[in-house]
Automatic annotation (TrEMBL):
Transmembrane regions listed in the UniProt entry: 116-135, 141-162, 174-194, 214-237, 244-265, 277-297
Descriptive protein name: Putative hydrophobic protein (TIGR00271 family)
Pfam families assigned: DUF389
Keywords (A to Z) from UniProt: Membrane, Transmembrane, Transmembrane helix
């Protein structure tokens, strides 16, 4: 279940309450008259089944309420209510499969912002992967994959394509096109520094690295794995099963490929630089294509589902 809190002008409250009461899947409607102070108005509360939330939010937005009041949405971790159970049973579909587009757009908008924190995480992850490359350590590579924040803007770009949101697309592209070059440039400098102090050695980099050689040797499986990871990642976001993102993070080699390219560049190894760059491009492309197709399929599925239930 989701919990909605709305601030409505007093002359619009009856209209909003009527909309809530005729929406299947809505329950626990409450009105706190004149409770809001800024902006002034009534507070309207309700709970809605997740599978009915997207349609309700669309209708609330169509009333113009966000322009004169506000709508906030929270996940309910636990609710003990027979009426809530009845509302979920009445709503079409399954809550685990439902996509709340407004929530998805807001979440990806925040995660795809090019910020100091985003750059810091991406840079640290790339440097950590660089250490894994030199040490041929699969554990460090996996750790770097988990730390990397790049799935946020990738999901934002997929969402922007399906929702035709140019501002979100621009924001996501900026995070990727600026974030990776900056992280790779800093990692290249980090590699030179580590070599200068004797912690990195070119001989180690050129030696056989059975645990990490796949990073700069792209093949068809590179795209296939990224494609499957893109599907899983988007499903984890839309179904609110964020724990699955950990599995997605450690299945694709975006950050490790960027790190290997940076280290190879610092040693003037153009072959591995090119191979790592291709690996990075294949992973990014696979995730974007898969994520976009998954969101498009979910959008069509729920549109048809809502029509058949109407």
């Amino acid at each position: 279940m989701l919990h909605l809190r709305m601030i409505t002008p007093p002359d619009r409250t009856d209209e909003i309450v009527e909309l809530l009461e005729r929406t299947i899947g809505v329950t626990h409607v409450a009105v706190l008259a004149r409770a809001a102070r800024h902006p002034q108005g009534d507070i309207v509360l309700c709970d809605v089944a997740r599978e009915a939330a997207d349609g309700l939010l669309e209708r609330l937005r169509a009333t113009g309420l966000p322009d004169v009041g506000s709508i906030s949405v929270d996940d309910v971790g636990l609710m003990l209510s027979r009426r809530a159970e009845e509302a979920e049973e009445a709503a079409p579909g399954d809550g685990a499969d439902a996509v709340v587009w407004e929530s998805l757009v807001e979440e990806t908008h925040e995660e795809s912002t090019l910020s100091v924190t985003f750059l810091a995480f991406l840079t640290v992850a790339t440097m950590l992967a660089a250490c894994g490359v030199i040490m041929d350590s699969a554990i460090l590579i996996v750790g770097a994959m988990v730390v990397g924040p790049e799935f946020g803007p990738l999901a934002g770009l997929c969402t922007a394509i399906v929702r035709r949101a140019p501002r979100l697309a621009w924001r996501s592209m900026t995070a990727l096109l600026v974030g990776f070059p900056v992280a790779m440039a800093l990692t290249c400098g980090f590699s030179v520094l580590m070599d200068t102090v004797g912690l990195f050695h070119e001989a180690k980099f050129l030696a056989d690295r059975p645990q990490t050689s796949f990073i700069w040797q792209p093949d068809a499986f590179s795209f296939v794995v990224a494609f499957l990871a893109g599907i899983a990642g988007i499903l984890s976001l839309t179904s609110a099963k964020s724990g699955a993102l950990i599995g997605v993070a450690i299945s694709v080699t975006t950050v490790p490929a960027a790190a290997n390219a940076a280290v190879a560049l610092s040693y003037g190894n153009w072959s591995e630089t090119r191979g790592s760059a291709v690996q990075l491009a294949l992973n990014l492309l696979g995730i974007i294509v898969a994520g976009t197709l998954t969101l498009a399929a979910q959008r069509v599925f729920w549109a048809q589902h809502r029509k058949s239930a109407a």
